[in-house]
Every structure is written in structure tokens, then in C-alpha cells.
Amino acid sequence: MATDPPRLFVSYASSDRERVLPIVDRLAAAEVKTWVDRVGIHGGANYAQVINDAIKGSAGILLFASPASLASRNVKQEIALGWRYQKPYLPLVLNPVEIPDELVLRSSKVVDKTTTELPKGARESSPEPGLCPLVELFGS
Questions:
Q1: Total domain count for the chain?
Q2: Which of 15, 44, 65, 97 lies deepest, with the highest CB count within 10 Å?
Q3: What is the CATH number of the domain that holds 37?
Q4: More confident residue, 33 or 129
């Protein structure tokens, strides 16, 4: 029985969607597998169960951090489920925002998308400088 490769669960505020989805597309082009609600939830599905299963089966959570996402009830619930299933977090900072201490403690790295410098040791062929750490950690 074949299994799907591990995916990162994408957590974001709906108000950030226009910025998040193009980044998710670029990650997919770099062979970073993600689960995102735009394709993961189908009509008539039990939203809460689908989200729970996606987080439970993920390799970790990619949190698109912005003031909106850190204030979002849905994002907070996704974070709580991630803790429940002991999933690592990787906050990707969309806007200058202070990452809460409890998230910093549970993540191995914070990727600052607000900067454009190529991180030390990153591949030049990565989709863009701010995404290099994701490709390095989760690319196939």
C-alpha cells in the first residue's frame, strides 16, 4: 500500500490568502509538499475533522505569521491541535510581528519572509531567498 509523502500543514489567516497561496505554489514547484485548505477540503466535508486529520498526518505546521494569523481563532485552534499531536512548527513571518514565546519554543527555526537576503548555505536555485530554509528542510 503506497502512502503519500509527508506534507506540511499550511496555517494562515484568510485575510492573508492572496500572499500565502502564491508562496505555497512556489514551494510546490520546489517539491515541498503541503496541505492547504483550498485543495484539502471538498464540498460537504466535515471541516473540523478534515483539519484534524490533516494536522495529525502532517510532518509539521507551516505557520504564516502575521498580526491577522496570530489573532485568528482558527489558527489558534490549528496550533493547539499541532501541540496535541506534537508537531513541529515553522513560523514564516509575512509581516513584522512578534512570534509568541510558546511558538518560538516549539519551533526549530523562524523564517523571516520580510527579508530578501539569501540565507548562508542556501541553494541559488531555490524559489526565492526567503523560502530557501523551507526547501532545504522539506524539499524532496
A1: 1
A2: 65
A3: 3.40.50.10140
A4: 33
Selection from 79, 70, 115 nearest residue 97 by Cα? 70
Helix (H, G, I), strand (E, B) or coil at 88: coil
In terms of residues, how long is the chain? 140
Is 90 part of a structural domain of the chain? yes
Grid coordinates of 6? 509527508
Work out whether the CA dihedral 22, 126, 58, 81 comes out positive or negative: negative
- The number of CA neighbours under 13 Å toward the Cβ of 95 is 11
Statement: the pTM of the whole predicted model exceeds 0.85: no
CB distance 18 to 46 below 8 Å: no
The answer to whether the Cα torsion of 119, 88, 73, 53 is positive or negative is positive
Per the structure block, which three cell numbers stand in for 106? 516549539
Element spanning 69, H or E: helix 67-71
Q: Dig out the grid coordinates for 51 from the structure.
A: 483539519
